[in-house]
Write a structure and sequence with these properties.
Strand content: under 5%
Number of strands: 0
Radius of gyration: 17 Å
Largest sheet: none
Order of helices and strands: HHHH
Shape: elongated
Structural class: mainly alpha
Helix content: 55-70%
Amino acid sequence: MTFERAIRTCFKKYVQFTGRAPRSEYWWWALFVFIVMIASHLIDNFVIAPTLGLPAGSVQDGAPLSSILSIALFLPNLAVAVRRLHDINRSGLWLLIAFIPILGGLLLLYWFVQPSFHGKTKY
């Protein structure tokens, strides 16, 4: 799956928590979100902050563009993560393991880099 196709697929399946997401779709989407968030933080700090009369680079909490984009991308991030877990034959509820400090995130990272489960999955 290409970068462009993965992004289109994730926006098309904005809140679809059923089905499967191959490894390439998940990681292309993660790269897209990373790039968008870096760009939005730069715009917040060096374009929006000076127009509000703040020194450049001073906006940390409450950055308007970054906040809006974080909210807008929350559900597709959640949906593609659940579909990725389905692709390795795990329930989407395993995403809750992220609330366990360090260990949960490392386990999810390990699962997200695993190859797809061949055959029919339960999910």
